[in-house]
Specification:
By secondary structure, the chain is α/β, with parallel strands linked by helices. It folds into three domains: 130 residues, N-utilizing Substance Protein B Homolog, Chain A, CATH 1.10.940; 57 residues, Alpha-Beta Plaits; 214 residues, Rossmann fold. The protein contains 22 helices and twelve strands. Helix 1 packs across helix 2 and helix 1 packs across helix 5. The longest helix is centred in the C-terminal third of the chain and has 19 residues. It is globular and about 80 Å long.
Length: 452
C-alpha cells in the first residue's frame, strides 16, 4: 500500500500562522517540515514532467487537498520564485537533489539562516552542507546574474549589451501583472474600471493598449458579472497590440493562422465590429473547442473555428490569394513569457530551437500564400531570441520579394496606439515596456502590377 506523505495527512495540516516566528514578508523563520516537503515535491514533479508548471502545480494540489489556501499560496509563490532563480540555485545544489535545491533556495533566495533550516535536514551530512552553503560564492557569470540559461544569453548577445541582458533578467524575476482586454463590443474601458471599483478591485488603464486594464495581485474575477457577461478577457497588454498592428476592417476576410486558445481571434473579431469573416485555424480540435464558450460569451458571430491537419491543409489552399489580413502568432520558444512560465528554462534548449525555426518558416510561407495583393501579413512570437524574431523576418523577406515591410510604429499609430520603436518591427520587453516579451513584423503584399 502506498504510504501517504506525512505532510498530506489532515491531522498535520500546516499553517503559516503557527508558533513559528514570521518575518515582515509573512514567511516563517522556522519553516514547517510539511511545507518544505510540499515544495520539494513540486520541484520533483516539474523536473519529471514535460507538462507546463501551472499544470504540474494544479495536479499537485488536486492530489493533496489537505493543504489550506494560505499553504497553497506559499507553495505556489515559492515554487515559481525558485524556478525564476534556477540558474543561481543550481550552482549551489545539484539538479539531481531536489531537497538541497529547496534548501539552497530558502537559504540564499529567501534569506533564511542555516540555523533556522537545520530541522529540515536529514542527517549530519546535509546539516554540514547547509552550514557551508552560506559562505559559498556564486560565479559572476552573466547567465547566473541574469538568471537565464547560457544558450539564451549567447543568443541575446547578438542584439543586446550585457547591461541590457541584466536589466531583462531582473525584469523577468518579477511576477507578471494581471492584464485584461476590454471587449469593445460590450463595454468601454471606463465602464470596466467602474465595475471593478464597485467590486472592490483595484485597477488602472494599461499605458500602451487602449483596451487594456491592469489589476494588481490575483483577485478572483471569473464569477464577476463583467467577466461572465463577456466584458473582459485575460490577455497580456503586449498581446493586445497585435490586433491594431494587423488592422482588420469591418468587411475584411481575416485568418488567425495559429489561433490556439483564441484570445487574439476574439480581439480581431471585436475590432471588425462583428462583421466580415474571421477564420481561426489551429491543428488542435481541443483548443478550438475551448474557444467556443469564450466566443459565445464575447458575443461574436463572425468568427469561425477551423481545425486543420497541417499548414498545407486543403482548407488552407482553398483560400490562397483571397485573404485581406493574416496573423501568424507562430509556435515559438515562449521565452518572452518567463515571468509567467519560468519553467520554460528547464523545458527549452538550443537543440530544440532548430526544429522550431523550421516550423516557423513553413507556417509563415503557407500563411503568406493566403494574402491577396494589397493585403497584410503579420508574423508574431512571444520570444526574446533574434533567431525566432528579426532573423526569421529577414529570411522571409528574402524568400518573398512580393511583400513589402511596413513600419509597426506607423500601423499602430493609425489604430490609436502611440509607441516609439527603434526598428520597423514591434519589439516589446518586460524591462522596457512592462509587458511580456513580444516581437512582430508586418508586410503588405504588393499589387500584381508591382510584383517581380
Amino acid at each position: 500500500m502506498k504510504k501517504t506523505p506525512s505532510w498530506h495527512r489532515p491531522a498535520a495540516k500546516p499553517r503559516l500562522t503557527g508558533s513559528a516566528e514570521a518575518d515582515d514578508k509573512g514567511v516563517q523563520r522556522g519553516l514547517p517540515l510539511p511545507l518544505f516537503e510540499a515544495l520539494v515535491e513540486t520541484v520533483v514533479r516539474v523536473q519529471a514532467s514535460p507538462r507546463p508548471a501551472d499544470r504540474v502545480l494544479y495536479e499537485f494540489f488536486r492530489d493533496h487537498e489537505a493543504l489550506g489556501a494560505r499553504d497553497r499560496a506559499f507553495v505556489t509563490e515559492n515554487f515559481y520564485a525558485l524556478l525564476r532563480q534556477w540558474e543561481s540555485i543550481t550552482q549551489l545544489a545539484p539538479v539531481t537533489a531536489p531537497r538541497r535545491l529547496v534548501l539552497a533556495y530558502l537559504n540564499r533566495g529567501l534569506g533564511r539562516s542555516a540555523r533556522d533550516l537545520q530541522s529540515l535536514c536529514r542527517g549530519d551530512e546535509e546539516r554540514d552542507w547547509l552550514t557551508a552553503l552560506s559562505a559559498q560564492r556564486l560565479p559572476a557569470t552573466l547567465e547566473v546574474r541574469a538568471h537565464l540559461p547560457d544558450w539564451v544569453v549567447q543568443a541575446l548577445l547578438e542584439e543586446m549589451t550585457e547591461e541590457e541582458i541584466l536589466a531583462l533578467g531582473y525584469a523577468l524575476q518579477k511576477p507578471a501583472p494581471l492584464d485584461l482586454r476590454v471587449n469593445s463590443l460590450k463595454a468601454s474601458r471606463e465602464q470596466v474600471l467602474e465595475a471593478l471599483a464597485q467590486a472592490g478591485i483595484e485597477a488602472a488603464p494599461t499605458p500602451l493598449s487602449p483596451w487594456g486594464v491592469r489589476v494588481p495581485g490575483r483577485p478572483a474575477l471569473q464569477r464577476l458579472p463583467l467577466f461572465v457577461e463577456g466584458w473582459v478577457e485575460i490577455q497580456d497588454e503586449g498581446s493586445q497590440l497585435l490586433g491594431p498592428l494587423l488592422g482588420p476592417r469591418r468587411r475584411d476576410m481575416v485568418v488567425d493562422f495559429c489561433a490556439g486558445a483564441g484570445g487574439k481571434s476574439l480581439h480581431l473579431g471585436a475590432l471588425m465590429q462583428n462583421q466580415g469573416r474571421l477564420y481561426a485555424f489551429d491543428i488542435s480540435a481541443k483548443r478550438l473547442d475551448n474557444l467556443k464558450p469564450r466566443l459565445k460569451r464575447a458575443g461574436l458571430s463572425n468568427l469561425m473555428p477551423v481545425v486543420i491537419a497541417r499548414e498545407t491543409d486543403d482548407r488552407v489552399r482553398r483560400l490562397h490569394g483571397k485573404i485581406d489580413r493574416v496573423l501568424v502568432d507562430a509556435p515559438c520558444s515562449g521565452l518572452g513569457t518567463l515571468r509567467r512560465n519560468p519553467d520554460l528554462k528547464l523545458r527549452q534548449n538550443a537543440a530544440g530551437l532548430a526544429s522550431l525555426l523550421d516550423k516557423q518558416r513553413s507556417i509563415l510561407d503557407a500563411a503568406a500564400s493566403l494574402v491577396k495583393p494589397g493585403g497584410r501579413l503579420v508574423y508574431a512570437t512571444c520570444s526574446l531570441l533574434p533567431a525566432e524574431n528579426q532573423r526569421q523576418a529577414e529570411s522571409f523577406a528574402l524568400r518573398h520579394p512580393d511583400f513589402r515591410l511596413l513600419s509597426a510604429q506607423t500601423l499602430l499609430a493609425e489604430n490609436g496606439v502611440v509607441l516609439e520603436l527603434d526598428t520597423p518591427y514591434l519589439q516589446l520587453s518586460p524591462a522596457k515596456h512592462g509587458t511580456d516579451g513580444f516581437f512582430a513584423a508586418a508586410w503588405e503584399r504588393l499589387p500584381l502590377s508591382s510584383e517581380a
